[in-house]
């Protein structure tokens, strides 16, 4: 089981967490100062940044190669690019963006649940390709591309018949491996698997949102163990970021407190 190392301050709901250039970027759901930047060693707040006013954000990821953070938003169906100097640019996705990730080619993968596609963009928003997912991959939340070119995708919302994590071929046509199935709480089941992280050995961390836990799978998507428990989280694990060098897992946690939506980020050694 992972051990809690630190908890970043509670506040508005946290939609995403990532690391860039020795700093922690935290994305909150509010109108201004959506991005909070913390020192990765001291966990002290360094600054706050406003990406856009009146924008509903969904996820965040980062790219050390391009030295920027990417933020998805659904009411404008677009991605914002925030560089380390604080400059912001934006491009249209032409579909509702949900999960974001960066592949080995330093391109941005945007998961679009309403059309069951993964769209790949360059760092500055050029559409490189669209990948249509298999018909039984319903309501995809998040996708990560492995070094071999295959895609790990988590999918399933309330009311969907299947909640699982799949490995999909590089052309998007075939499911190679999968874990999960009917919605439930057993070790081989999920209840809204919503976000992923993959380590250097291609072990997969899964944020099992409504079961309120983080699960570890092997590179072929076999169950290994529970990494973070419901008791440790005390809320819903909304998104993940794995610092592979330090073996630290950053978890954006969502919860209700005194009738209000709240959130924080918890850091676990794994």
Please describe what this structure looks like.
The protein has a four-stranded antiparallel sheet. It is mainly β and 270 residues long. The chain has one domain: 6 Propeller (Neuraminidase), CATH 2.120.10.30. The relative contact order is 0.15. It has one helix spanning 230-233, and strands at residues 3-7, 14-20, 23-28, 35-39, 45-49, 57-63, 68-73, 78-83, 88-92, 100-102, 108-112, 117-121, 127-132, 140-145, 151-155, 163-168, 175-181, 193-198, 204-208, 213-217, 223-228, 236-243, 248-257, 260-269.
Q: How many H/I helices?
A: 1
Mind telling me the C-alpha Rg? Answer: 17 Å
CATH topology: Neuraminidase
Query: Can you tell me the overall shape?
Result: globular
What is the chains' assembly state? single chain
Strand content: over 45%
CATH architecture: 6 Propeller
Number of strands: 24
Strand order of the largest sheet: 1-24-23-22
The helix content is: under 10%
* Unreliable parts: none
Mean pLDDT: 95
Q: What order do the SSEs take from the amino end to the carboxyl end, as H and E?
A: EEEEEEEEEEEEEEEEEEEEEHEEE
The major sheet is characterized as: 4 strands, antiparallel
CATH H-level superfamily title: TolB, C-terminal domain
Question: What is the highest CATH level, the class?
Answer: Mainly Beta
- What is the distance, rounded to the nearest whole angstrom, between the alpha carbons of the first and last residues? 7 Å
């Amino acid at each position: 089981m992972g051990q809690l190392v630190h908890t970043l301050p509670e506040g508005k709901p946290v939609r995403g967490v990532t690391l860039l250039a020795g700093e922690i970027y935290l994305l909150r759901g509010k109108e201004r100062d959506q991005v909070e930047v913390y020192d990765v060693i001291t966990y002290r707040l360094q600054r706050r940044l406003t990406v856009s006013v009146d924008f509903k954000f969904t996820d965040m990821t980062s790219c050390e190669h391009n030295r920027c953070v990417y933020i998805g938003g659904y009411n404008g169906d677009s991605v914002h690019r925030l560089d380390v100097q604080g400059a912001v640019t934006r491009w249209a996705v032409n579909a509702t963006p949900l999960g974001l990730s960066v592949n080995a080619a330093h391109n941005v993968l945007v998961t679009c649940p309403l059309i069951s596609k993964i769209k790949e963009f360059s760092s500055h928003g050029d559409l490189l390709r669209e990948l249509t997912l298999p018909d039984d991959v319903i309501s995809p939340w998040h996708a990560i591309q492995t070094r071999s070119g295959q895609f790990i995708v988590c999918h399933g919302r309330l009311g969907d018949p299947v909640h699982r994590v799949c490995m999909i071929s590089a052309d998007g046509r075939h499911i190679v491996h999968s874990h999960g199935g009917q919605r439930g709480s057993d070790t081989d089941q999920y209840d809204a698997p919503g976000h992923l992280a993959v380590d250097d050995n291609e072990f997969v961390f899964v944020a099992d949102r409504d079961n309120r836990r983080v699960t570890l799978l092997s590179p072929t998507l076999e169950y290994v163990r529970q990494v973070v428990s419901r008791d440790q989280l005390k809320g819903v694990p909304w998104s993940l970021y794995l610092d592979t060098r330090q073996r630290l897992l950053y978890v954006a946690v969502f919860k209700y407190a005194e009738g209000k939506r709240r959130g924080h980020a918890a850091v676990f050694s794994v």
